[in-house]
């Protein structure tokens, strides 16, 4: 059994919450979420609650709707129905920029770094909402500009060092190995000072040792910054060992929720991944 799953509690919405989060406002509360593209329903009746320091997973076969759900949560798409609350605030009609300011950040299935910028500058891009400097000060390079720039550099280096990337701070992002770029994307997401990070296949393209290190880093991020993490991942070893609660989607609908141990033995999950045996068809 995953060491964290013993501390998970059932709550009225049929989700799981960490014992430490039971009396706190959920960082993410999604109710009856759905989206249609033309006559096609891509996501339907999606419900999930994530506590302020929870590590949760979203799994399912290819094409199940996982990335579409992340796009809904970050306002890349506007839902056809349902609601999304971040720290208790309904995000209906908000832009991605406004949702990010509420405290939600993400990485992408396909890396979206600024390849020609240094790793340090990529992280500083994520801090744009926090840098306090007037337009005039920036334009004329007044003392306030240099003060803000120094503070941004120091914070960016702290985050890079935290993820073991301090030595590549001045290298162009596009020249870095694939696994390092994946970690850099996580650092840039952390730079927005989020209360929850959505990781879309963070272990994609990583070798086994990099994936193992990523598991440790995900836990360290939660424990150091006291934030929630919600991840999509196909590497079941990572999911089962790092997630405290898991939701499984197929054809845009949740078919199971539970602890890693419960999900591992759930017949509906096994069928979704492996198909129904002919004798049971």
Task: Please characterize this protein's 3D structure.
Strand 1 and strand 2 (16-18) form a beta hairpin. It contains ten helices and twelve strands. Helices cover 35% and strands 23% of the residues. With 281 residues, it is α/β, with parallel strands linked by helices.
How is this fold's topology laid out?
Blueprint: E1 8-10, E2 16-18, E3 28-37, E4 40-50, E5 55-59, H1 66-73, E6 81-86, E7 89-90, H2 96-102, E8 104-106, H3 119-125, H4 135-140, H5 143-162, H6 178-190, E9 196-200, H7 208-225, E10 228-232, H8 236-242, E11 245-250, E12 253-258, H9 260-264, H10 267-274
Helix pairs in contact: 3-5, 3-6
Q: Which tags fit this structure?
A:
4-stranded antiparallel sheet, 12 strands, 6-stranded mixed sheet, globular, alpha/beta
Query: Judging from the principal axes of the Cα atoms, what is the shape?
Result: globular
| Rg measurement, Å | 20 Å
In helices, the fraction of residues equals 25-40%
Low-confidence stretches: 1-6, 9-14, 133-140, 277-281
Distance from first to last alpha carbon: 31 Å
Largest sheet: 6 strands, mixed
Beta-strand portion reads 15-25%
Instruction: Give the neighbour order of strands across the main sheet.
Output: 8-9-10-5-11-12
Summarize the structure.
This protein is α/β, with parallel strands linked by helices. 35% of the residues lie in helices and 23% in strands.
